[in-house]
Amino acid sequence: MNEMEDRLRAALSARAELVQPEHLAPLTPAVDLRPRWQSPWVLLATAAVVLLVLGAVFQGLARDPRSDDVAPRPGQPELELPADVGRGWERNDLDTPPRLDLDGDGVDEKVVFRGEPTPDFDGRFRLETTLSSTGEDAYGIAEVGTTIATNVLDPIDADGDGDQELVLYYDDAEAVGGGGRPLVFDLRDGLLVQAVPEHPDLLQRGQVPLPGTASAHYEMVRLHDYWFEDGALWSSRTVDAYAAGNMTLLRPERYEVDAYEWRLGDDGVLRAGDASCRVMFPEGQEPCGSEAEEGFLPYINTVATETFGIGERADFREGYRYSARLEAFADPSLVVEGDDGRTVRYDDFAIGDPRISTVQPMGVDGASFFVTSASDPSYVEVLAQDGDQLRSLQAVGEIDLLDEGDVRTWLTPNGSVVTVTAQEDGSWIAWTWQHVRSGMTALPWGTVCFDDVDDPSTARRC
To answer: What is the pLDDT of residues 352-373, one digit of tens each?
Structure first.
């Protein structure tokens, strides 16, 4: 039996006690008949109906909240109120306390930090301030990865209510390529409450691996970032994924991202707006729409053409400084003389007419060489110094070091060894070679199209 039935039964019992035996006596012809609506039975039934309706209304308006009213919906981020701890923690006076208008009265509040004492300085901070509008104290709790110092970011007004939200930097030691994310604190009923991102994977900075792309030498990652713009918090994620490995990230100078502005709801949840397209480049960013090809392509469209052959020599002055010459007795021999006094030779050419580029392949400690053949256009070889000897680097990984048919290879003026492999749709995947312990491996650098693959300068976006 529920509460409404109890109330109705009690009301009916109370009304029934008003009906006495004389009310139920037989009517006589001498007594004037009352209108029907004055009958006690009608009044009793009417009262029951009224009580029933009122009970239903009050049950809907004034009942105690049920668990399904206060609990977050499935998948909804849950707001956590800060615990009132840390009043006695030591105040952090190493950093300048931030000042911002937390209560929207036009006067900035000063926020001070008290660090939780832990052996590794990895505890929490208690945030404290006094509101200028009321004189009341407000507090919050923040975990930013360390209590050695605080990194206060630009304040924002993510909910558009005229006051500002405090933003702190969280130092994520496990993130790759920068790491970290912003923590937003909103003043709610005298508490500095940390807002909860609906999609935290979109609000971070660094290189985020794509699941299932890891190989022995690289993995594909998307680049995430965030920034502040006109009092708002923005974040971005690259449209394309890029290869990261061997302490190298392969991305073009200009690249497209999906950008999101974050808004704070009344429920304390940060939500990303609709994605807008932007182009990122070293000097800044701009909306998508530019038709310019330059900067979007990997640096593959120029070729280092100068070489030396038998009886000739060249000097290499960048990085490890050395000179090299090709001698020929029965077979060609490469002699390398370092400025440090070391001399090494290489006599194991598989061809009789090597041509050696005057540009050193990059990414190799010591002397290195890009070797082609004067008579065989498909021949490509890379030599690298290993102690007191030169050795030919063997290709390991997904592709071979070739220059024929659907696989083309060349050296760029900045020392990148580039290979492009043809795809069924007419596009080409560009790869760049990296020196690894077991030889050399190619990392994907992007997709390009050519008007003429024999002329790398015709490379363009597909």
So the answer is: 999 999 999 976 778 999 999 9
Q: How far apart, in whole angstroms, are the C-alpha atoms of residue 118 and residue 424? A: 59
The torsion defined by the Cα of 434, 322, 391 and 346, in degrees rounded to 10, comes to 150
pTM: 0.77
| 299, two tokens | 């640096």
* CATH top-level class of 90-194: mainly beta
Per-residue H/E/C for the chain: CCHHHHHHHHHHHHHHCCCCHHHHCCCCCCCCCCCHHHCHHHHHHHHHHHHHHHHHHHHHHHCCCCHHHHCCCCCCCCCCCCCCCCCCCEECCCCCCCEECCCCCCCCEECEEEECCCCCCCCCEEEEEECCCCCCEEEEEECCCCCCCCCECCCECCCCCCCCEEEEEECCCCCECCCCEEEEEEEECCEEEECEECCHHHCCCEEEECCCCCCCCCEEEEEEEEEEECCEEEEEEECCCEEEECCEEECCCCEEEEEEEEEECCCCEEEECCCEEEEEECCEEEECCCCCCCCCCCCCCCCCCCEECECCEEEECCCCCEEEEEEECCCEEEEEEECCCCEEEECCCCCCCEEEECCCCCCCCCCEEEEEECCCCCCEEEEEEECCEEEECCEECCCCCCCECCEEEEECCCCCEEEEEECCCCCEEEEEEEEECCEEEEEEEEEEEECCCCCHHHEECC
Contact predicate 411/304, CB 8 Å: yes
pLDDT tens digits, one per residue of 225-244: 999 999 999 999 999 999 99
Pairing of strands 380-386, 389-392: antiparallel
Tokens 């956590």, located at residue:
80
Identify any residues that bridge with 418 across adjacent strands, giving them in sequence order: 410, 432
How do the domains of the chain map onto residue ranges? 1-17+44-55, 90-194, 201-287, 307-460
Which residues of the chain have a pLDDT value below 70? 1-75, 175-178, 290-294, 363
User: Tokens in use for 212?
Assistant: 């299932």
